[in-house]
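Hello support,

Our group uses your service weekly, and this is the first time we've seen a run hang past the timeout. The protein is Winged helix DNA-binding domain-containing protein. I'm not sure whether the cause is the sequence or the server load. Input pasted verbatim:
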Amino acid sequence: MADLSRLRAESQLLGAERATDTAGVVARLGALQAQDLAATALAVRARTSGLTADQVDLDGEGFVRTWLMRGTLHAVAADDAGWMLDLLGPVNRAKGARRRTQLGLDDELCERAVEVLPAVLADGPLGRAEVVSRLASHGVEISPDGQAAPHLLGYAASRGVLCLGPELGRGKATYRLLEASSELSREEALAELARRYLRGHQPAGPADFAAWSGLSARDAKAAFASLDSEIVPLGPFWTLGAAAEVPSPGSIRLVGHFDPYLLGYADKTAVVPSEYVARVRTGGGFVTPTVLVDGEAVAIWRQKGAALTVEPFEPLADDVRAAVEAEVTDIGRFLDTPVRLQMGHGHLGDAN
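Update from on-call engineer: The timeout came from a worker crash unrelated to the input. Re-ran successfully.
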């Protein structure tokens, strides 16, 4: 469909409209990919103006960071955590059942952990090793090494008992108690999640919703059917209400690892030309930092120290390169560290 990428970029706050703060980004997208907080901060930067990295606090009041869509870490508004966990927690537990069995985590042990974790975490956030040690003192013994501990804690998170707390250091998680509730039925929660998804990803269809959420195709179709009076067809996709006008060209953003825009749809070639998908999605779930022009990927990038290297798929026009330079400067402002643009090899022009 013509102009699909522009419409989607605008929905994701990657066009003319931007949010004023992190909460606005989370509200628009419904949930923000958050397994790598440095990458998540870059996702916020690309969708706001003027914020700095130290203002992006997804472990602060008002947010919950836990395993939701596709069983991966997302940050959501605290008020939404309860109904999202009620909907997605059973899906994630079912998907992880075989692996838990392989790790010796039977249902009885998992339920015992759920019972005692409120006492374990009563004094505040703890690192994983301390949680495992305290679980043992309550009669729940698992190996502190390997994958048993993260799978057990993931199970408890899916039950709404805990979520992630502030990091001890980059990638070193803590866990805190979660108090979340929901008054939505499963059908209401399913419809609400689809509504939130469309608000931040439209135009899109049930297959896209299923790919983003990790729900079954049947659930995704049922969710869209329940929104029949609210959604409008646009080619093979749907929008909430009448489709917006196609935005004017000229939107250029540098988005980081695992950006929601690159993870939010079933057909990756609607965002990345098919011949370059392998350069953006390099395997093992890894998604490379990408340069978007009007919502279409035109280059990948990487940062090492003060050097940010852009590797275009095809030669960049002068006005695009100037906009990329401005984005690199803004990343330096956001990170409060000098960053300079370098151009890579191939179709990439001369190095700076």
